[in-house]
Amino acid sequence: PTAQIGVTGLAVMGRNLARNFARHGHTVAIHNRTAAKTTALAEEFGHEGTFIPATTAAEFVAALERPRRLVIMVKAGGPTDAVIDEFAPLLEPGDMIIDGGNAHFADTRRREAALRPSGVHFVGAGISGGEEGALHGPSIMPGGSPESYESLGPLLEDIAAKADDGTPCCAHIGPDGAGHFVKMVHNGIEYADMQLIAEAYDLLRNVAGYEPAQIAETFHGWNKGRLDSYLIEITAEILAHKDAATGKPFVDVVADAAEQKGTGRWTVQTALDLGVPVSGIAEAVFARAVSGHGELRRSAAGLPGPHPSVLDPRDAARFADQVEQALYASKVISYTQGFHQIQAAGAEYGWDIDLGAVAALWRGGCIIRAAFLDDIRAAYAADPALPGLLADQRFATGVGEAQHAWRTVVASAARHGIAAPGFSASLAYYDALRAERLPAALTQGQRDYFGAHTYRRTDREGSFHTLWGGDRSEVEA
Ligand code: NBP
């Protein structure tokens, strides 16, 4: 056996990952359920490196050096279980099965627990960056045992994207489902980032009165500052693009119903279970859902609201600058919420995740790569126990300086009748966090009134209940 790594599942992702390993000088065993894909890969890209095509599972396993490293890149869910069931009996203690698909972290925990007694390491590895990333350097989030990472880490780090300082965008995240959990939150943050950018576009278009080409220019400018990111960069390109058939801006000919594959929804579902407020991410998932309910939207189309009006050009430029500030501040909130979710899951599942390392490995290769992530890395490096990003001086100052513009933008959106759920929810979260007193006190009173759920007091220890149906005296519960 001569292959350092094997890849089974040769659709777009697996094929490009296999090529990436081969281009880095590793001998790669390749396998796919439908053998034609295996042959095609070897024929088309054999010149890029050394591939060992295998048609049967036994041939594939026999081609791998021990301990064997076998990457599964098949459709998440049932197919992944089917492939594990096929290969696990052929493996020996110390071998590794790496699932690079978009598995739900709970499935990864289940699979890892099922394989552990056999001594086979199951590594759930989140991989971000799409097809291009898989080929040129993705961001990789491997979970699983520390021993598995000792053997696997160097290979993964070799093919991963590199941050500007040369660090590979790959690090051991934590045991069992930790890697897939972090990948899930990455996708949730990606939803939020995309929604916030979409709101910024909507406001520039319908409040500032900018045409798509001018918004492309504006985003291009923003991309030179603190918002420098892959998503802002591609947004500028998309907005500058004209439809060949009609000559209209591309964005005007695309149906306005956003689809989703489910990782954003998983992020929100999991956050609800963990009791972590991820309102920015949730609003992004909901905004896509709203866009898809065509009939409901059509039925509401005639409802009253402000007449469309755009700002005077002299005020528009100032407004555009305020939108940049609102976008920055809202983005900080999305990341604050996402990192909180990772921190909470770490505590729940005993993962001990290094949040700074997570920020560091998102700096390259993945969809949310951004200059900004280096500031998050630095914030957690300075204080690994940081309660949240707003507790870091740089973020507190940045958001503090933006908060006035942020409010202006949210108020303008409401006044002009433009939905800006991401900006609004993020601002509400910011204001709730900084409030000295929340109306939660009243909520506790209501809960005690109708359900005798008790409350705590600000002035003494203990749990209390007021006899609401009786003389309204207070008793200690
Ligand atoms: P797909 O998700 O489209 O899966 C196709 C692959 O799964 C093919 O190799 C297919 O084999 C194999 N497969 C299926 Br379907 N059922 C199988 C079964 N029962 N037994 C064995 N093999 C089976 O491929 P992809 O888009 O390359 O994505 C792979 C994984 O990476 C997914 O989990 C995806 O969520 C994740 N991911 C994708 C992206 C992306 O940008 N596409 C990004 C990040 C992560 P066949 O050729 O015989 O049909």
Structure, described:
This protein is of the alpha/beta class. The chain contains 20 helices and 9 strands. The strands form 2 sheets. A 7-stranded mixed β-sheet has the order 3-2-1-4-5-6-7, with helices on both faces. Strands 8-9 form a two-stranded antiparallel ribbon. The radius of gyration is 25 Å and the shape is globular. The model has no long low-confidence stretch (mean pLDDT 97). It binds nicotinamide 8-bromo-adenine dinucleotide phosphate (NBP). Nicotinamide 8-bromo-adenine dinucleotide phosphate is lined by residues 9-14, 32-34, 37, 73-76, 79, 82-83, 101-102, 127, 130-131. Nicotinamide 8-bromo-adenine dinucleotide phosphate binds at residues 9-14, 32-34, 37, 73-76, 79, 82-83, 101-102, 127, 130-131.
Short description:
The chain contains 20 helices and nine strands. By secondary structure, it is an alpha/beta fold.
List its traits:
binds nicotinamide 8-bromo-adenine dinucleotide phosphate, alpha/beta, 7-stranded mixed β-sheet, 6-phosphogluconate dehydrogenase, decarboxylating, 9 strands, 20 helices, Pgluconate_DH, oxidoreductase, phosphogluconate dehydrogenase (decarboxylating) activity, EC 1.1.1.44, 477 residues
